[in-house]
């Protein structure tokens, strides 16, 4: 019953953001269609669903505090909070992926609009590099299912990442927030230095990253699995962060 309560509240909060977000997407679709007609279809819009990845990440950050205060006000356990949130974001991510596929196919009625999946796991790059060849988006059932799963798994992972980051910031004082903010930059610098000084290990890491992201060999199911596993791990990290979290004043 409590999980259902969390899910209903989560959906009520998320619904408003989704309506605003997809209203903007449809407006952009209309404006793009008009612009494309005026330019005789010479414009290419690629990877438009990446905006939903950003939306998922921001939603994960923005929604945590409000929902956390809700569960504490209603004496709901932290474990129930995470389960209810996870059970809510899974179908919502699926719905977002379906909507993004529909929007993308509408884009392709006016101009070339390859998805990230198209550019990474179909013949888009090969055809685009051939003179005189025109890329045509594939709409077979396998392409649709793979696109759906690829997008949905991304949305899940980035929402969980946003939530985990929001929890880290929530637990930190002002000084630690600064440390957390600059830590990604410092980590990138340290990794770059390490990879420069140890090229053999860097090559191993690069090959491993290419494998789990489906770059080499080209395999869409590798990143799908990677994103899903990352979602589960980040949810676990979130539980460790929230387990003894003290409620702060709004």
TrEMBL record:
Membrane-spanning residues: 20-38, 50-68, 80-103, 155-172, 179-200, 220-242
Key words of the record: Membrane, Transmembrane, Transmembrane helix
Superkingdom field: Bacteria
Protein name in UniProt: ABC transporter permease
Organism: Clostridium isatidis
